[in-house]
Design a protein that fits this description.
phosphoprotein phosphatase activity; about 50% helix; 4 domains; EC 2.7.13.3; 5-stranded antiparallel sheet; alpha+beta; Helix Hairpins; HATPase_C_sf; single chain; Beta-Lactamase
Amino acid sequence: MKFMNKIKTNWSLTTKFLVTLVFIIMIEFIVVMFVWRSAIIYTKSNLPGFNPEKFTWTFSKYIDIEDNKPVLNDEGKNELVKNKAWIQIIDESFKEIYSFKKPQEVPKVYTPIKMAHIYKYDIANYSIFISEKEYDNESFAYIIGFPTWRIAKHTVIFNPTALRNFFGGGFIVLLAVNVTIAVIASYFIFGKRMGRPLETIINSINELSRGHYETNHMEQGVYKNVFANLNNLGKTLKENKNKREEMEKVRENWISSISHDVKTPLSSIKGYAEIMKDSDYTFSQDEILDYSKIIYDKSSYIQGLVEDLNFTYKLKNRTIPLKKENVNVVILIQNIIVEILNHPLYSNRNINLYFERENINILTDKNLFRRAISNLIFNAIIHNPQEVRVDVSVYKKDRVHILIKDNGRGISQNDLKYIFERYYRGTNTNVSVEGSGLGMAISKQIIDVQGGSINVESTLGKGTNIDIVL
């Protein structure tokens, strides 16, 4: 089957090549014949340019009769000079009676056979054309000669019977043999040489469609660019496949983590609820309040996870309306830092704010922007040791920059690739933190939807820099 497909491909290429070749030859033949007839062969009425026969036939109008003898007028002399020609007028006895610009080699007296000879061939490197001038029942023949480098005549001698026999039999056989040789030669020279790389290309595309992305073709020949593109396509598809597999693992780990984060508070809720519904046990008011608070806190945590997940998908699909306003970003970040430091768990943290001037305004959705900056600062705090230093700088060049820098543990290059993915939690932390793993993804999405950009650089053991440009 594979062999038959190869033959079919080669034959298809050969057929298309031959059809195209024949068509081109036919078009070229027609064009060449037209040009050849128009530019080379002189006929009675075909040319827009100079026609020596027509010129000779009509030249008698320049011959006048004076004292019963033909002479050339001035206009005729000018025409001959312009066309680098000469003229000789002879009487009925083939003797010269007038000439103009005639070469010395041209005789003054002719015999009938000599006259026929010079008309068939040439004389003194001039091509001869003959016509006549009639006057009062007399006839004068005149000969006009054109240089052979400008006008040439050739006599073709052939056997019509032999020609008919050739086209009737031998020509057809010869044509059939030539066509057969052309087809066979085209198949092996064109079809196989062009078909072999095409077969490789088709097989490579089939392999790619089946998920086999290991393509490594030699980038050479007519299809050099095609093979280069196939290699690049295979490489890209393989990278995308590996990325999908990695993201699938990340997604599975995220689902496992979320399931664990939901399962733990649900177990607490269920446990305390079962205790409280036990009719054999009487609870004090303080116990009821304590148990209710635990159930409420755990429920709120689960609700936060669900809301974060729903929020990030709304951001991705841009279904959240933006309420942009003119905001002083320095004051906004200052208030965020104050709120964090007022929290009992983070009151002793080292967070610093630097700015070049107190009033740097941006057009943004204040609540969304607050959430994005809070997430980024909290990440720098909770995933690093308590003694970590977090510096927040705000400055304006052509655009507004917010730089969040810490000297903490840093992020590995492998984690850095997925830092903004919805399903990813970093590995370089020994802190067990309740959360959805969506904080960084939400921050990036908020910055993106407002036309900004965010870039993260990090080195293990040295810390992390987050640059926000608005």
